[in-house]
Specification:
The structure is a homotetramer. By secondary structure, chain A is mainly α. The first copy, chain A, contains 13 helices and no strands. Chains A, B, C, D: Keywords: Ion channel, Ion transport, Membrane, Potassium, Potassium channel, Potassium transport, Transmembrane, Transmembrane helix, Transport.
């Protein structure tokens, strides 16, 4: 996040507003974030309720007014964000800048061009705005560690997903041949879709094997899927276990006499030779 | 659990009763707990059987009598608990106090106010009473360790659940747009519900994608769900592994000078005060 | 397995037969085991095929003859096992003795008393006989380790299953109240069954929530089930990890000079003081 | 992969072509691999699209031409591979040789003998050709480690799968007896199939228990399946964790005398020859 420039001196209200909008360590900044969070959550709920036909028919007017109130609120906020920041261009083309823009624009387009659902549903992206606010919570550390564990096992996960997709393409083709269009497997892509549904143990049941051979092969796919789920789990499990282990080594002191370096966190003396350790 | 006060001397039968009802280390106390356990399990089975229409029609009278027998038994027990305990108020508003109360009250309300199912089903809460009795079993240690492992990974699990919900809201909205009301995705909340059904690999099949694009996106959601399940597993797995490791106590030395006890496995000197540790 | 007594001297053919039937380290014993394995697998397949109506109608005679051939073979084997063993009673009432008996008796009962499916299907228990033969394979070690890991985590698993059942009973009751008989949740036990189907992420779809509130609660149950699966996995994972770690310590040598004991498997000298280790 | 013989001197174009076709470290070789990869992926997509009835009806001619273009490209490539390699026989009967052959032959057979779907779908095997090309990517190391982890836990996984199959056969037979043909469990093999569907938590819902006893047993199977999935996960998890640990190389010391390099973390002397190790 860009720190405010010292050269705000010309317009001190901009520096003030910047602090309120972009930061969260002043009471006003915190209040702003909480209000924003409530409005975002409220707007998401509104988008959902609008999609329910009988509610939309009944409360059309209320929804319309609320939607415009939120749109105007977000528009004002967006403009203020551009005005107060030092490098507006960088903000406008940043991830959150685009999300903020997409949060307001659909309503205007729907108003001028005649809205269809497609445009209005983009408003669901407002949800992403929540992340900016949550950035300041204490969970950010944990989420970074989880993302770190996933990133470290990225290569393994890609290999695994690649294997899953290959299995699904091959077994899907086999099922297409075995069951055929007369049992619902109308094309190879559909059979592959079915195979993914089965391998991932979802099992909708919209399509299912009917012939004994098809059921035998399906059993085979299911047992593979049941066993193969162990692989990503094992990968992430080992990775988190490792990252947990690594963070335990918080004491980096080395004994000045015997160079022993594996001391417990609150050690004051070397456990190997008994000499005093240096102050941390 | 509150220990009985020494001042029960005025009414020794209260102290005696307290011991029977609240404790389990005397033969009578144990017997009471076993009887209570049986009555609770019996009452739960009764509530279940009552809900089966044709059984309720056939054995209405038997169920009615059994229900009142249990209600009176629980009422007497509840009153005795209040009488014998030193601080009745604390008990009444404690978790188990409320559960005990809710175990008896629905029958009375149903009797006086004309019962509907809603009230009677609250009796299923009687099940929670089982926990108090099981408290004394040898499994309490294990369950504490499991709860401990879950508590330690709470932050990670909240982050994970938050990510799952965000994914479901976004993908649910996308599916609503792609499939639309004509294929069963009648509203965004319903699409989100479907997305949760799919991501968690439950897959009821009441709603399922019909268009090729919808099936493609569904495949994507399923594979995410299939891979993402690795994350909570990895978290808990690493946590349990750690808690197991910690309880292994490979070095049981205690420093003879400062009584520090957390030494590394090959420590010869106390890391806290520098004195020599005793030979193993 | 009982070792043959030295007192078989009176009937050397019994000792010989014992060796063939009960042991697998002579060529004849091995051959016997392989033949038996084939007959067992063949008989299982036969039981399965008989259950397929149109095959049974077509090949009734062939199945009948094959079934009697197998029954007589197993009967002879059973009698020989009793004759050759030193303590027949102990065998007869052992687990495998009972399984052997149940493998032959259904055909006789069906013949004399007029068979129904129930009796004939008991023959599927013949499958258990396979275990005796597999006892000699190299997989027995691994299976013992897996069973060991499961046994060690027994207490944790019981606590976990108990929690799952409690959750299912409570949430099942709630769903019964929310959805009610008109949406398929006709009784509390059925709702509990549905809850187990959902929590374990099986999701048949024969019953599924229809009301928005029911779908919301169902989502909640699914996410619990999705997260909770991490617990048994974590338990077993940590247990296997531990058992693997423990078996790594194959070198139990202790240095005669400095008493250091954590040597690598092929160590000849102490890594701590450089003195020669004792021969293994 | 066979390295080119020095005796290509007679036909230098063969050595050149060999380099382009079989290797990937020259610009031309890399280009060839990328072109091949694109053609393979394109041909797979073509096979899929052909299987969609309405697309095939509409673009029959385009598909026909594209298919023959690919077939001829693969045929030429196959012939060039045979010509340029030093030991053609070894290639022809190698895994990739057979895959390459099966990638081209179905089109010819379909042309001469009148094609049916069965033959044409073999072309989906072209997918396997992708592996040869991906061999050179950086993911090969990770995939080898994953395969290694799976290989190491092979014995455990076989024991596990054997147990799953035994459970499914026994519980499938039980369900056949309990539910019977009138509720869809028309034969024992079908019941076993249902049991696999349930135990692996797939749950299509095409067959599902209707009687209370059947639902009770099904609940039991589901909870087993839910718990048992922990076993393969635990196995692979522990294995990956171990393989990660082994590659961490915490002690990188090499003995200056005997070049032994597997020392424990705090070793001061070589455990193999007893000489002092260099200071870290």
């Amino acid at each position: 996040m860009n720190k405010p420039d010292k050269t705000y001196s010309k317009a001190p209200w901009r520096a003030k507003l910047y602090e309120v909008i972009y930061e969260a360590d002043t009471p006003m900044g915190k209040l702003f974030d909480i209000v924003l969070l409530i409005v975002i959550v409220f707007s998401i709920i509104l988008v959902m309720l609008e999609s329910i036909a009988h509610l939309n028919a009944k409360y059309y007017e209320e929804f319309y007014i609320a939607e415009w109130a939120i749109t105007i609120f977000f528009s004002v906020e967006y403009i203020l964000r551009i005005i107060t920041i030092h490098k507006p261009k960088k903000y406008i083309f940043s991830f959150y800048g685009i999300v903020d823009f997409l949060s307001t624009i659909p309503s205007y387009i729907a108003y001028f061009a005649g809205g269809n659902n497609m445009w209005l549903a983009i408003r669901a992206l407002r949800l992403l705005r929540v992340f900016r606010i949550l950035k300041v919570t204490r969970y950010i550390g944990e989420s970074n560690r989880l993302i770190g564990a996933l990133k470290n096992s990225r290569a393994k996960i890609i290999v695994f997903l690649y294997a899953v997709i290959i299995i699904c393409i091959i077994m899907g083709t086999v099922m297409y041949l075995v069951e055929g269009p007369e049992h619902g497997y109308t094309s190879i892509p559909l059979s592959i879709y079915w195979c993914i549904v089965t391998l991932t143990t979802v099992g909708f049941g919209d399509i299912h094997p009917v012939t004994p051979l098809g059921q035998f092969i399906a059993s085979f796919i299911m047992i593979i899927g049941y066993g193969v789920i162990a692989v990503p789990t094992g990968i992430v499990s080992a990775e988190i276990s490792k990252s947990d282990r690594n963070t335990v080594h918080t004491n980096t002191q080395v004994c000045p006499v015997c160079h022993e370096s594996t001391h417990t966190d609150h050690a004051g003396f070397c456990h190997n030779c008994g000499n005093k350790l240096n102050e941390k």
